[in-house]
Write a structure and sequence with these properties.
It is a single chain. This protein is of the alpha+beta class. Helices cover 24% and strands 28% of the residues. It contains four helices and twelve strands, in the order αββααβββββαβββββ. The strands form three sheets. The chain has a six-stranded mixed sheet with strand order 3-6-7-8-9-10, sandwiched between helices. Strands 2-1-5-4 form a four-stranded antiparallel sheet, with helices on one face. A two-stranded antiparallel ribbon has the order 11-12. It starts with 8 loop residues before the first helix and ends in a 7-residue tail after the last strand. The mean pLDDT is 94.
C-alpha cells in the first residue's frame, strides 16, 4: 500500500476531481461510492420534494454540496435542506435535514459513521434511504426503520411513494 500524503483544507476546497467529488477527513481525500441510476433518481426525487416547498417554507435544498463539519472534516451529503436561511458557499452550520441515499457498493460501517457525524454536528433530521430495498431510516438514538420521513416542526412528511416507483 502506498504512503498517504496529507493536504490542507484549503487545498482540498480548491481541488476538483474528474468523476465523483471526494470528502475530506483529517487531511486525507476520501473517495465516495459511485451512484447508479436508481440512486440518482431517488436523490432527485428527495431534492424535488423540498424544492417544491422552498418558497412556501423558506427551505434551501441542495445536492452533493461540500459541508464543513469541523476544521478537519468535510462531508458531502446526497441531499441537504437548510432552513430558514440560505447557507454559505461551503456551509459550516448544520442544515435542518441531511439525506443519504445508499449505493450498492456502500459499506454500512462507513455510512453509519457518516450519519453519526451529521447528528453530532447538530443536524436535527438525519435520514438514510435505501432505493434498492425501498426502505427508509431515521438516525435518532440509533438507526431506526420508519414508514415515512417527517419534519414535525414544519408539518412535512415525505412518503415512500413520493420517492420510490
Amino acid at each position: 500500500m502506498g504512503a498517504k500524503s496529507a493536504i490542507s483544507l484549503e487545498q482540498y476546497l480548491h481541488a476538483t476531481f474528474p468523476d465523483v467529488d471526494r470528502e475530506y477527513r483529517d487531511g486525507e481525500i476520501v473517495e465516495r461510492s459511485l451512484p447508479d441510476y436508481l440512486h440518482g433518481r431517488v436523490q432527485g426525487a428527495i431534492f424535488a420534494f423540498f424544492w417544491a416547498l422552498r418558497s412556501e417554507l423558506a427551505l434551501f435544498p441542495c445536492v452533493e454540496t461540500r459541508m464543513r463539519l469541523r476544521s478537519n472534516l468535510v462531508l458531502i451529503p446526497d441531499v441537504a435542506v437548510f432552513y430558514p436561511d440560505e447557507p454559505a458557499r461551503v456551509p459550516d452550520t448544520p442544515p435542518l435535514v441531511v439525506a443519504e441515499v445508499l449505493s450498492l457498493d456502500d459499506r454500512l460501517t462507513a455510512v453509519r459513521e457518516k450519519l453519526e457525524e451529521y447528528k453530532a454536528w447538530g443536524v436535527p433530521h438525519v435520514w438514510l434511504v435505501d432505493p434498492h430495498t425501498k426502505r427508509l431510516y431515521m438516525r435518532d438514538q440509533g438507526l431506526v426503520e420508519v414508514t415515512s420521513l417527517r419534519i414535525p416542526e414544519l408539518g412535512i412528511e415525505l412518503l415512500p411513494n413520493r420517492i420510490f416507483e
